[in-house]
Amino acid sequence: MRYWSLILLVGAATGWAASLPANTEAASRWESDGRSLFLACEFKQAARAFEKALAAEPASAHLYFWVGKSYARLAEISSPLSAPRNARAAQRGLEQAVAIDPRNQEYLRELFDFYVDSPQWFGGGLERAAALLERIGSEDPGAEVRLAHLADSREEYRGAEWWMRRATLRTAAVAGYLVPQR
Predict the structure, then answer these.
(1) Which residues lie closer than 8 Å to 58 by C-beta, 6 or more apart?
(2) Residues 16-31 pLDDT 10s
(3) Domain range list for the chain
């Protein structure tokens, strides 16, 4: 199964996988199973189900996203021996999802969180996260929170506090518009 996943990742990156006929019914069935398993916190089985869906529909950004997300959660809970392998699979899946659909904010945010929360030797890195944050943009509703998270990871606590205060004030201002005035 690993070899097919690698072939599909390389194929999607080079573009020949897009010319393969998609079996959307099978992909949909495997994706549904994968989402159910993910919600049940069965991340290993979820990743396998999403990989099978990806085999049926190899140019799907959202399937790469779910493969990456499943492996990221699996890396968080797996043993120290298997965590690096799962983290690399998560990175490949999330980066491929962003490569296929570079404007999808959800994919960009998940990849950002992966970069910030993962050690550099697991595929993460604060420089990568900072570069990705520029792509996410300041219009993102959680931009201040992400900047605070990045500053906190860099141990720049004053900057992290400043960004969190700004995020809190923005949230309070938005909430003020939602509360009926007397």
Answers:
(1) 8, 11, 12, 17, 18, 20, 22
(2) 444 445 578 888 899 9
(3) 2-103
Rounded distance between C-alpha atoms, residue 104 and residue 45, angstroms: 26
d(CA 65, CA 90): 9
- The CATH number of 2-103 is 1.25.40
| pTM as predicted | 0.70
Question: Which tokens go with 131?
Answer: 């570069």
Look up residue 179 and give its two tokens. 């509360």
Q: 19 to each of 12, 16, 31, 57, 60, how far by Cα in Å?
A: 10, 6, 21, 11, 12
Whole-number average pLDDT of the chain: 78
| 141: Cα separation from own chain's centroid | 17
Yes or no: say if 152 and 118 are a contact pair by the CB < 8 Å rule: no
Structure tokens at 78: 């797996």
Distance CA 60, CA 65 (A): 9
Going from the C-alpha of 167 to that of each of 105, 124, 152, 159, 164, the distances in angstroms are 18, 25, 14, 12, 5
Alpha helices per DSSP H over 42-82 = 43-56, 61-77
Please state, in angstroms and as integers, the Cα–Cα distance from residue 15 to each residue in 12, 96, 99, following that order.
5, 12, 11
